[in-house]
């Protein structure tokens, strides 16, 4: 996914304040929070610089009651684009987070950032029978996938020049964390996405699906929203392959 280049403005502000954030037109990312600490290059090889992103829900917004309105260019099929009226707040949030819910033909519908053409941001419908929680980035410089599903609490966005799609990261501090579905996290994550503000070693954006930044989000409680820096290890070989198979990468289990 990608997001509006307008977010570059915010990136510059965050950098001036000692925080990271932003985007460009070639990568996909969104920010729920920003890192609180800027690490040295040596520290980045040992500790993560985390943020969290999720699927924003704007389906309950009544467009007729919004003070500011706009339209989303929505790709329903290969050559079929329609204009969907939305509140400007929803447009900005969808572009920032990359995945969101809006009302389409009276139905709560998940859409994903598609691309920007001649200055117009385009979104696409998500086939939730394949990728229930949204779409990640399907290609990097060395490989491409037909479909890349985001995997809540187990996928991260990273700098794919350093960590290619499918790379496996182990974070001991997350092992044993209780997840909303009652399961316990094993500490392993798979890179399934990337982003304009996701640059450098140890920079990971953690996807939490429909769970936003609130008390029910275990990753927020752990400090993965930018408050803390934890040890991390890049896993390779048969161990990494085992993790990918458990998570049914690049699809979902």
Note down, in words, how this protein is organized.
The chain has helices at 7-16, 41-44, 88-97, 218-222, 237-246; strands at 49-53, 56-57, 69-77, 80-87, 99-104, 107-117, 120-125, 155-157, 168-170, 188-193, 203-207, 233-235. It has 253 residues and is of the alpha/beta class. The strands form two sheets. A six-stranded mixed β-sheet has the order 1-11-8-10-9-12, with helices on one face. The longest helix is centred in the first third of the chain and has 10 residues, at 7-16. It is globular. The chain starts with 6 loop residues before the first helix and ends in a 7-residue tail after the last helix. 43% of the residues are buried. The model is unreliable at 2-32 (pLDDT under 50).
Summed up, what is this model?
By secondary structure, this protein is an alpha/beta fold.
Class based on secondary structure composition and strand pairing = alpha/beta
SSE order: HHEEEEHEEEEEEEHEH
Amino- and carboxy-terminal Cα gap: 21 Å
Strand order of the largest sheet: 1-11-8-10-9-12
Helix content: 10-25%
Helical run tally: 5
Q: Total number of β-strand segments?
A: 12
Please state the overall shape, judged from the principal axes of the Cα atoms. Answer: globular
Q: Which stretches are poorly predicted, pLDDT < 50 over at least 5 residues?
A: 2-32
Radius of gyration: 17 Å
